[in-house]
Write a structure and sequence with these properties.
With about 325 residues, the protein is of the alpha/beta class. Helix content is about 35%, strand content about 25%. The protein folds into two domains: about 200 residues, no CATH class; about 110 residues, no CATH class. Helix 10 packs across helix 11. The protein is globular, with a radius of gyration of 20 Å. Bound molecules: flavin-adenine dinucleotide and iron/sulfur cluster. Flavin-adenine dinucleotide (FAD) binds next to helix 2, strand 2, strand 6 and strand 11.
Length: about 325
């Protein structure tokens, strides 16, 4: 089947704002749950320092899967009162005969498929959706950032997201809430976290094997970048894009409740042209090894200040809006 594309978003604004893009992953998940199936997806660990998997059996369970976790997941799941390796739990649910939707990154879907094939388990009840993947930031960046917030606010984090919608779909904000009731909110790309996310991923992500025609899922989901307000299908609260690879993916798309979720056909070439990470990897920065060293020795904040060229430039970049900073540079030239 040729690649097909759709765009979509939740019609209900509160539901739309709870998801990272248009809520496409949640719409697919709700569809499978309504058919009596269950959904595996990524959530933060209780201390927010790592990400892991959870299994949603009902619509309310989907809340913790919503939102992009920009870190690699541990392949474990809290199931029946204890942590277990992920793949055997997914396999067990598949063998029980229920419909299963697995949502993850491209390499997660490939690992699941290879596990069930190695055990001779049928994939007839399995739907898979992966995300267009820039590459998650290395885990130590995230863990140090959470540590620094908890130190600063002298309280434990009770919720965290790097994709809070404050003014709508973009820009993304980091938003955290604390036991003390305090809240933290800052533009993602003005933080050390956002700056590190742009460049520092795992070695394997700079040579990802699951791009372009090598996606192995039924559907690849992402942000519909390139869509502008005057174009059909735009929503200021966020729009998802679905790239459908096979008939199983089409079957899953037809299960979405169109009363709740607005879907329109899209041009796959346009989608891919505006989302380079569908087919290309991020480039490994020249200072990768020294960044890893700095993370260990001087910590995330000092490592990012050093890479900005000193404290003055660091704060100028953080607080002077990009447009004004470009204008200042042009005047100084
Ligand atoms: C590391 C990373 C890099 C990304 N890079 C891009 C990009 O370059 N371009 C682009 O268009 N989109 C990218 N995305 C996807 C985008 O951020 C949204 O996650 C995606 O569009 C789904 O949004 P939604 O509104 O449909 O999902 P929501 O309703 O918000 O649900 C989120 C879904 O994402 C899954 N998920 C979240 N974090 C992870 C994770 N770490 N590992 C596995 N599954 C996870 C959950 O299981 C859930 O199904 C990236 C996501 C991640 C996690
Ligand atoms: S870039 Fe590729 S290898 Fe890295 S997390 Fe994404 S899908 Fe997996």
């Amino acid at each position: 089947m040729n690649l097909r594309a759709y765009s979509g978003y939740f019609r209900d604004n509160a539901k739309l704002l709870a998801s990272s893009s248009g809520g496409g992953a949640t719409a697919l998940s709700e569809a499978v749950i309504r058919q009596g199936g269950l959904v595996f997806g990524a959530c933060y660990s209780p201390d927010f320092r790592t990400a892991e998997f959870a299994c949603a059996e009902n619509i309310a369970d989907l809340d913790k899967l919503k939102g992009s976790k920009y870190i690699p997941t541990e392949k474990r799941i809290f199931h029946d009162g204890e942590y277990k390796p992920l793949w055997p739990v997914v396999a067990e649910k598949l063998q029980s005969g229920r419909l299963v939707l697995f949502t993850g990154l491209g390499c997660d879907v490939a690992a699941l498929k290879s596990y069930i094939a190695s055990k001779g388990i049928s994939a007839d009840n399995l739907f898979t959706a992966d995300l267009i993947c820039y590459g998650p930031v290395i885990h130590e960046v995230h863990a140090q950032y959470i540590d620094s917030l908890e130190r600063k606010y002298k309280s434990r984090i009770t919720s965290f997201t790097a994709r809070r919608k404050i003014q709508g779909w973009t820009p993304s904000y980091i938003f955290a809430e604390f036991e003390s009731g305090q809240k933290f909110c800052e533009r993602l790309y003005g933080t050390d976290y956002g700056a590190a996310f742009k460049a520092y991923s795992r070695e394997c992500c700079y040579q990802c094997q699951f791009k372009g025609a090598s996606h192995v899922s039924d559907i690849t989901l992402g942000d519909f970048w390139g869509l502008t307000p005057e174009m059909d299908g735009y929503n200021p609260g966020g729009v998802s894009v679905f790239l459908v690879h096979n008939e199983n993916g089409e079957r899953l798309m037809r299960m979405i409740d169109a009363q709740e979720f607005h879907i329109s056909p899209a041009d796959p070439e346009f989608v891919i042209a505006h989302n380079s990470k569908y087919h290309t990897c991020m480039k490994k920065p020249a200072d990768y090894a020294s960044f890893l060293d700095d993370l260990k020795t001087i910590g995330l904040h000092a490592a990012m200040v050093k890479r900005s060229g000193g404290i003055l430039r660091y704060y100028a970049r953080k607080y002077i809006p990009r447009r004004i900073s470009r204008l200042l540079k042009a005047i100084l030239k």
